[in-house]
Amino acid sequence: MRSPMPYPPAPVIPDMSADLWNSASSVLDVNWSDDHMVPSRRLYPHQWSWDAAFIAIGLAYVNPSRAWRDLRSLFEAQWPDGRVPHIVFDPRTAEGDYFPGPGFWNVPAYNGRAARGSTGLVQPPLHAIAAWEVYRRAAAHGAAAAHEAGDELRWLYPRLVAQQEYLSRRRDAAGEGLASIVHPWESGLDNSPSWDTAMAAVPADMGLLTRYTRRDLEVADASHRPLDIDYARYLGLVLNYRDGGYSDTALVQRHDFVVECPSFNAILAAAELALVHIAEVVGADAEVHRERAQRITAAISKHLWDPATRTFRSRDVRTRMLSPARCVNGLVPLILPDLPDHQAAAIMAEAASERFGLPEATGLPVPSYDRTATDFDTLRYWRGPIWININWLLRRGMLVHGYRGEAEDLRMAMIRLIHRSGHYEYFHPVTGEGIGAPTFSWTAALSLDLLADRSVPAYARAA
């Protein structure tokens, strides 16, 4: 089989920005569904949690009222314990049109929400960052717009705080200040090699794939999706959590998968920094959020850092072992302004190495996994392909730590890639070809932000 050709440098196209802006706006119009945005019409016909945050950030440029509505729609499904579910199901979509649907999750009914179900899992809590970004765009349009946006923040603030407290308290399985995930889906990086060692200890009941039919393979190429053995383990983890009433007591004893992810926890800390600014707008105590952000950052720096390789890794709480895999989630702590300088420099060295390759070397954004690894896969979801959302976070981290030239190179690499290949879910890490769902919402939304905003992230500025 012929090897794919390397991604060629894109020519400078004078109207590239206008083309990309218009196409991105069109995607967001197509994927709006009454009161929320779907990631894509066929593969993901419901509302996803961290998708909603990424989407709101870009949607605020073209339709701020929809950006606020999307966040509200998600938080209207928040559980009494503070968790924000990773999927909120649209009751207009039939159970058989998506699996695993609300019937499989069978979550408890509360607050009169029986008609609109959700899952019992969570995703990275990017929502405070999104809310602050939407607010500051609105506030730039005058006092009336700022007042209206302030009302939105006042509605969201206690819910955002409850989300943070749920993750920081109920999910601190190791008792060391880091939130644990109990399912790979909670990371947002579903089948990343970062979980392989921990997942190897999870029983794989292949009979579950006989009892339940994977719907994703009906609308997506199997070579792009997680393997059957992965999916069997995913279902088993959900069933165990569900049958235990989605309880978070005795996590290590009751769950087969309990892992601390560097990107999840970096986002948790960055959300606290965003809440510093939100608290000042709504008249709440800002200092508590600043202190929490510092504590989480210190815990990441201490417990998820591998001094031998000078990289951040996920940690299996059950075994206390760091993952051997070098994955893109290890680069995301760069978004934290209080990260020690030597660790920020090490992240940049890792990103520039042959394992990932910044645009200067490849012409492309960074892949999701170590390019030099023997199991690097150019097609399979989070095991090699390029994802715009993670590169967007990495670029913000570069700006936070003063790597402005590298940040601009990465911004332009993302813009060129999306303009050339389309608003795909993810991209081939060698050819730049679009893979997965087309007309993907967060790719479109983040395109708008990449075109419009070149400033240092607002949450990292002095309050």
From TrEMBL:
Record-annotated Mannosylglycerate hydrolase MGH1-like glycoside hydrolase domain positions: 44-443
Keyword annotations of the record: Glycosidase, Hydrolase
InterPro entries referenced in this protein's UniProt entry, alphabetically: 6-hairpin_glycosidase_sf, 6hp_glycosidase-like_sf, Glycoside_hydrolase_63, MGH1-like_GH
GO biological process, one term: oligosaccharide metabolic process
GO-annotated molecular function: Glc3Man9GlcNAc2 oligosaccharide glucosidase activity
Domain of life: Bacteria
Keyword Hydrolase appears in the UniProt entry: yes
PANTHER family on file: MANNOSYL-OLIGOSACCHARIDE GLUCOSIDASE
Name of the protein: Mannosylglycerate hydrolase MGH1-like glycoside hydrolase domain-containing protein
Biological classification of the source: Bacteria, Bacillati, Actinomycetota, Actinomycetes, Micromonosporales
